[in-house]
């Protein structure tokens, strides 16, 4: 399917997802978690190909480690979906309810956004995390990962879709764009009419590109930060190596 067809399917499915009850969504999440574990061998094999390709092209060892999946990391992805299933359903929650002088009640009600697009880089675990949060909140998601993790992402999405099918839920709740070219990313940024919001997750450069070029609403995320606290009893030479 081309991107317009993917968007149209996501839009169609989003109308159903927005009406799902908590039990149905939780069943889908738990089935997806089980499917990740059942398909662990295929996921690790696909990831092995990604890691080999990354090494051959000279990727930084630290980035290779972020790309690499292990049985423990696959299990962590599955556990993450189970954790999301255990959360309270955010859909329908009403807050800040106020009564006006004329007796009218005004409040904020949480509703699904519809179709969420997520552009991210070489972290395969983001694939499962993004699906889980979007599905729990009643949204369809279109994923566009980096080229370095395309085999891993494909295997993860295939497993999740299998879990959804077994639950009687539409597998198009999560779709992966297989084209990792820059043009496909630009096309996703311009998918007005199908995409309700786009979320970039990754480097400052990626986030800036999406914010500056997207014609659909963007939720601008931060690039993240890291704090290191050094106790006075620490090995300072080791601490300096960690910091720098």
TrEMBL record:
It comes from the Bacteria. GO terms for molecular function: glutamate-5-semialdehyde dehydrogenase activity. Gene3D superfamilies: Aldehyde Dehydrogenase, Chain A, domain 1, Aldehyde Dehydrogenase, Chain A, domain 2. Residues 72-242 form the Aldehyde dehydrogenase domain. It is an enzyme of class 1 (oxidoreductase). Coiled coil: none annotated. The keyword Transmembrane helix does not apply. Its EC number is 1.2.1.41. Keywords: Oxidoreductase. SUPFAM superfamilies: ALDH-like. InterPro entries: Ald_DH/histidinol_DH, Ald_DH_C, Ald_DH_N, Aldehyde_DH_dom. This is Glutamate-5-semialdehyde dehydrogenase.
